[in-house]
Amino acid sequence: MRTIIARFNIQPGKETEAEEAMKTMAAAVEANETGALAYIFLRNRKVPLEVAVFEMYADGDAFAAHGASAHMAAFRPNFGPLFDPASVKIDSLDRVAGFTR
Amino acid sequence: MRTIIARFNIQPGKETEAEEAMKTMAAAVEANETGALAYIFLRNRKVPLEVAVFEMYADGDAFAAHGASAHMAAFRPNFGPLFDPASVKIDSLDRVAGFTR
After folding, report:
1. What's this model's pTM, rounded to 2 decimal places?
2. Where would a tag sit more exposed on chain B, N or C end, judged by fewer CB atoms within 10 A?
3. Are the Cβ atoms of B42 and A100 closer than 8 angstroms?
């Protein structure tokens, strides 16, 4: 199991395009990555430009496949026009306990 | 749907007790809160004292029930001896897109 929380900021004024890009990306992950167990784009209620992405992969191979995917290659150029590249923070996490259902 | 990412730090030297407390809490949430759809304690790989909790509730009532639960009342006193109360950050989030499976 690999779990990631990625964070970055939407460029001010680009909220609509950014949401469209996130929806397209999430749909592509769901359709093409059987090893992706969760992939959720979220916006902070108090600071709506802040995005968090909660990602769970079955194993390291599934995580590597995500990074090498065609949809990831298509999503990356959004950093700049839609998302602030300087704001990106990626935390790799180990599960202690818990569940999804 | 209510989604929360809570963050706080384990008190140095209290890792073992903190992990036990998190396991007990996660099991109680799973057993007693039908409205909790995800509840996962995670530790940062690079900064292992950092904990993140990814929480999804079916609705506001389920989130309120979590806060009012007996197991939450039992978990709270761990802030101080096991977890640093000054480190707590709680983000309330709105889902843009994504899935769990």
Report:
1. 0.96
2. C
3. no
Q: Where are the domains of chain B?
A: 2-51+59-88
Domain made up of B2-51+59-88: CATH architecture: 2-Layer Sandwich (3.30)
Cα-based angle A78, A83, A84 (whole degrees, multiple of 5): 125
Alpha-carbon distances of A75 from A17, A22, A23, B1, B64, rounded to whole Å: 12, 8, 11, 26, 36
CATH architecture of A2-79: 2-Layer Sandwich (3.30)
A76 touching chain B per CB within 8 A: no
User: What residues contact B81, with CB distance under 8 A and at least 6 apart?
Assistant: B11, B14, B17
Comparing CB atoms, the residue among A22, A51, A95 nearest residue B42 is A95
| Mean pLDDT value across residues B18-36 | 98
CA-based nearest residue in chain B for residue A98: B40
How far, in Å, CA of A14 to CA of B65, rounded? 36
pLDDT in tens, B43-91: 999 999 999 999 999 999 999 999 999 999 999 999 999 999 999 999 9
d(CA A31, CA A2): 19
